[in-house]
Structures are given as structure tokens and as C-alpha cells.
Write a structure and sequence with these properties.
It contains four helices and eleven strands; from the N terminus they run αββββαββββαβββα. With 209 residues, the chain is α+β, with helices and mostly antiparallel strands.
Length: 209
């Protein structure tokens, strides 16, 4: 196979994230809602009956299904199902930066507005309760940030004899920043807090500009 033929083959493809098809893909929505004339952000408390992260605070969202035409459609569908509202009540759905996790996940966050608060009827199998926090609170409250160190633990049969340094190889250890927001008796942390912090940063930068 000659060089030009190889170049032409590579030119025809669209670059993506390496290993994209193996990632678990989800979409979430940051719901903005008017409460007494003030913009609030709506959060969910996950049902204690759920196997994954019961009781945690999150945004509406979930895994992207084959039936979803796009991550945006997934975010709208999941929000509609979890909050018991019509899709038409979810407006101005706009993408934020997506998250690529070292743990094999891609999360597509969106913001959007919910037009009728009184129509919300959470699905009890997924949502224990919903609550709102004024957007202004996050604009004036910095999150607590804690570092979580990640250790490298090779398998027992790892071929140390094949790498320079062997068992003394200098692994580049990493850490991740975990964000915490506290509002009254609620603690917002993890990916929800990370996505929230990104959104707040975007809003603050736009105001400065």
C-alpha cells in the first residue's frame, strides 16, 4: 500500500475521540426555572431504590438510547420522563462543554428552561424529590474543592520486564478535583457539581465580556 493511498484513506474519515464507541454516553439538562420572578436551578434527589448513587443530588438525565436522535434529544426525553412534564415545556435547550471521563464515560450537558413549575410530577421510581436553588447563590458562592488521588495498581501478571524501569517504573500519578456546593441541608458534589461549576463559570465570563 503506497503512501498516497494511505493518506487518502485517512483523509476520508472524521476525527473523533479514540475508542469513542466503547464509551458509555449520557446527557443531562440543567433546568432553569422562574420562582417568584427569580431564576432558579432545579435539582433532583435520586430515589433510594436506585442501584446507582441512591440519594445523590443530580440533574435530570440518563444514558443515550438508540432511539434518541442526538444527545440533546436524550436530555429532553430524560427530563420529561423524570419530572413528569411534556417535552414542549422544555425550551431553549443549549449545549455546554461535554465531559470525557477517564472512567469510560462521555456526558453531554445542556441548559434549558422549564416553563411551568406547577406541572412537575416527579417519577417516584427515579426521583425522591426535587428542589430549586437561586442561580444568584451559585454566582456568589465558590465551591469547596478537594483533591482525590488516583493510584496505579497493575495486574499481577503485568509484563514489567517489557518496559524501561520494570517494577520501578515512574508512573505519572494523577488526582481529580471534587467540587462541593452546600445549600441549606443539601450537598451537591461529583459530576453534578463539576457540570454546575462549568455552567456558572460560563455565565460569569459572559457577564464580564
Amino acid at each position: 500500500m503506497d503512501t498516497q493511498h494511505i493518506i487518502q484513506k485517512v483523509k476520508k474519515r472524521q476525527p473523533s475521540i479514540m475508542g469513542y464507541k466503547h464509551f458509555r454516553k449520557s446527557a443531562v439538562l440543567i433546568p432553569l426555572i422562574e420562582v417568584e420572578g427569580e431564576t432558579h436551578i432545579l435539582f433532583e434527589v435520586r430515589s433510594m431504590a436506585l442501584r446507582s448513587q441512591p440519594g445523590d443530588i443530580c440533574f435530570p438525565g440518563g444514558r443515550i438510547d438508540k432511539e434518541d436522535e442526538s444527545p440533546r434529544d436524550c436530555a429532553i426525553r430524560e427530563t420529561s420522563e423524570e419530572l413528569g412534564i411534556l417535552k414542549t415545556g422544555i425550551q431553549d435547550v443549549t449545549p455546554l462543554d461535554y465531559v470525557v471521563s477517564d472512567f469510560g464515560r462521555i456526558i453531554y450537558p445542556y441548559i434549558g428552561t422549564i416553563t411551568k413549575e406547577h406541572d412537575i410530577t416527579p417519577n417516584p421510581s427515579e426521583v425522591a424529590q426535587v428542589f430549586t436553588v437561586p442561580l444568584a447563590y451559585f454566582l456568589h458562592t465558590s465551591p469547596e474543592i478537594y483533591k482525590v488521588k488516583l493510584n496505579v495498581v497493575p495486574e499481577a501478571d503485568f509484563p514489567f520486564d517489557s518496559i524501561v524501569g520494570g517494577e520501578n517504573y515512574n508512573w505519572q500519578l494523577r488526582h481529580i478535583d471534587e467540587f462541593f456546593y452546600r445549600y441549606e441541608d443539601k450537598v451537591i458534589w461529583g459530576l453534578t457539581a463539576k457540570i454546575l461549576h462549568h455552567f456558572i463559570t460560563v455565565v460569569q465570563q459572559e457577564e464580564i465580556q
